[in-house]
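Box 3.1 A note on notation
Throughout this textbook, protein chains are presented in two layers. The first layer is the amino acid sequence; the second is a token string describing backbone geometry. Keep the layers aligned when reading.
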Amino acid sequence: MERNHILLVEDDKEIREGVEIYLRSQGYEVFQAADGIEGLKILEREEIHLAIVDVMMPRMDGITMTVKLRQNHDFPVIILSAKSEEVDKIMGLNIGADDYVSKPFTPMELLARVNSQLRRYGKYMDMLEAKEEKEKSNVYVIGGLELNEDTVEVMVDEKPARLTPIEFKILALLMKNPGRVFSAEEIYERVWNERAVNTDTIMVHVRKIREKIEINPREPKYLKVVWGVGYKIEKQA
């Protein structure tokens, strides 16, 4: 199982080393930094899953570091602050921190917060990945042409194209099989779910689809005719 990487940003060396011992005992990989500048440099070269950031530090404080961190990262951030620094706690949460721990604290308390935040973040990432996979499975992209079966939308160079339900079904059939040539009879039977009798309608629908998705329908980029055989969506490099 892959180890979670934790960035510990604290100017007190004894606190850093003490906390690292407890975190490593739980299987976490720990990267230490003495201030915000060092912490941001570590983020540039290491994959971090959670950051513990002290508020009061020289050169760059924890509030400033968290603001900069949030520009590119969404992993959990736990801020450390003295009990007298209530304003810093509120500010830290407002600018992107997920939790705070007041000094002095016990290593077990901090460890419990770390475990809790990583569990929540792990569930969030799992849900996000599952959602992205579901969306990807129903979205087909060929060059600048994009068809989404869930929303029944077609985009051409990020601009919507308005297709009728039949036109959408024909285009979806072709886009799911880029490069494959479908005869007019096969398109008819797959889209209408009945035996093809008169396929002249396919030619009409193809012409209308081209008018909606091609910059120049007379010289189509996507929907091509293979004379005497049928139609296909051209693969794009």
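Residues 223 and 233 are 5 Å apart (CA to CA). The longest helix spans residues 107-137.
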